């Protein structure tokens, strides 16, 4: 069985899309949570709604016990390969590969080594829709904005990586070619976490 690590953001979505487009079948989405929220700051209910819109089952693990939790998921569902949306952070890829090696799972990296502007433009041109839901405080002006070519030009002028690979921002995907229906949500309120602002989503 093939699973796809799912953050709900554009990179994990594009990685899933390219995997499906290659002819492989992804049976499970895997999302790691801390205090019932993922690394992008939105809650389990948003991820469950996304999975429903995609028509793919989702399973949740504990971010604090990543390897132990992933091992349980792998063994329970007989997962042999996991898709990741990493692009160029070598240290993180090495860590993933080490975890997967110990779990006897094959990691798949459909976006690895690509130019992040090309990745961003492909995501947009393929018809996906996403919104900025978390930012470093210095980039507050792009919070809640739609991730499109106009915004892409703007964030480049601000010196931000087009895919936010350095943690400048995170997104939530609401629609695209692999979605069976649109994720309907609204921005409820802006929360402050350390050096970041995160939008609470109501779905």
Note down, in words, how this protein is organized.
With about 200 residues, this protein is an alpha/beta fold. The protein has two domains: about 1-110, HUPs (Rossmann fold, 3-Layer(aba) Sandwich); about 125-200, no CATH class. It is about 35% helix and about 25% strand. It contains six helices and nine strands. A five-stranded parallel beta sheet has the order 3-2-1-4-5, sandwiched between helices. A four-stranded antiparallel beta sheet has the order 7-6-9-8, covered by helices on one side. Helix 1 (about 10-20) links the parallel strand 1 (about 1-5) and strand 2. The longest helix is centred in the middle third of the chain and has 14 residues, at about 90-105. The protein is globular and about 45 Å long. The model has no long low-confidence stretch (mean pLDDT about 95).
Q: What's this model, at a glance?
A:
The chain is of the alpha/beta class and 203 residues long. It has helices at 10-21, 44-54, 66-77, 90-103, 116-125, 149-157, and strands at 2-5, 26-33, 57-62, 81-83, 106-108, 129-136, 169-175, 186-193, 196-202.
Layout: helices, strands, pairs:
Elements: E1 2-5, H1 10-21, E2 26-33, H2 44-54, E3 57-62, H3 66-77, E4 81-83, H4 90-103, E5 106-108, H5 116-125, E6 129-136, H6 149-157, E7 169-175, E8 186-193, E9 196-202
Parallel strand pairs: 1-2, 1-4, 2-3, 4-5
Antiparallel strand pairs: 6-7, 6-9, 8-9
């Amino acid at each position: 069985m093939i699973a796809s690590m799912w953050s709900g953001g554009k990179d994990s979505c594009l990685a899933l899309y390219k995997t499906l487009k290659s002819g492989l079948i992804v049976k499970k989405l895997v999302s790691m949570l801390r205090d019932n929220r993922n690394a992008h700051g939105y809650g389990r209910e948003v991820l469950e709604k996304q999975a429903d819109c995609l028509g793919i089952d989702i399973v949740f693990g504990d971010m604090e016990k990543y390897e132990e939790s992933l091992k349980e998921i792998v063994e329970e569902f007989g997962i042999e390969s996991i898709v990741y949306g990493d692009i160029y952070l070598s240290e993180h890829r090495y860590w993933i590969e080490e975890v997967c090696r110990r779990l006897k799972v094959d990691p798949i990296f459909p976006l690895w080594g690509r130019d992040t502007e090309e990745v961003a433009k492909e995501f947009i041109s393929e018809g996906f829709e996403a919104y900025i839901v978390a930012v470093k405080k210095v980039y507050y002006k792009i919070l809640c904005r739609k991730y499109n070519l106009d915004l892409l030009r703007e964030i480049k002028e601000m010196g931000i990586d087009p895919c936010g690979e350095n943690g400048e921002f995170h997104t939530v995907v609401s629609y695209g070619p692999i979605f069976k229906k649109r994720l309907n949500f609204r921005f409820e309120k802006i929360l402050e976490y350390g050096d970041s602002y995160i939008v609470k989503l109501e779905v």
